[in-house]
Design brief:
Layout (H helix, E strand, L loop, with lengths): L7 H8 L16 H4 L16 H16 L3 H13 L4 H10 L2 H7 L6 H9 L3 E3 L2 E2 L12 E4 L7 H8 L10 E4 L4 E4 L14 H9 L1
Antiparallel strand pairs: 1-2, 1-3, 3-5, 4-5
Helix pairs in contact: 3-9, 4-5, 5-9, 6-7
Amino acid sequence: MARYTGADCKRCRREKTKLFLKGSKCESPKCPIEIRPYPPGEHGRGRTKDSEYLLQKREKQKCARIYGILEKQFRGYYDEANRRTGKTGDELLKILESRLDNVVYRAGFAPSRDAARQAVRHGHIVVNGGKVDIPSYRVSENDIVEIAPKARELTPFVIARETAGQRTVPAWLEVIPSQLRVLVHSLPARQVIDTQVQEQLIVELYSK
């Protein structure tokens, strides 16, 4: 599957905000956006006012980059959200939040969504007793997601168990650190999703 292989920190600088793609580095003074809070490139400091279209495009790019998704898949998620009965923007974020790699990240089992995606691909994640190695797998209400027994003593998961509680876990999930298990009580409503994105701009972009 195609994926972005460039510098993560450039993506944050391009969007002029932290996308939290590098785990603990994003919280430290070494975060590049703290040092150079302007877009990368020769003309990064002197950019003019963005047009309405560019603002919409940037918002879509920001959302896709936060969740680590490329354009074709993101457009597919939007089309699915648009077919649902609820507000398209809300449904889009609900779809993105229900991805397995995002749930692993939200539970605190990985320092970033990239690391969570790698954990899933390597077969370290079990859903309802069965191994799932597809990061885009969607969890459902009452699912049980946990670290596979054979992987629980791997260094990343030992650290996750020891640092449990340091990251706020959303209310729709319940984490049991001692078992490296997370219970999906429900799928999230928009008001409990803390992703800093203006989803209406994305809807306006794709509605043209």
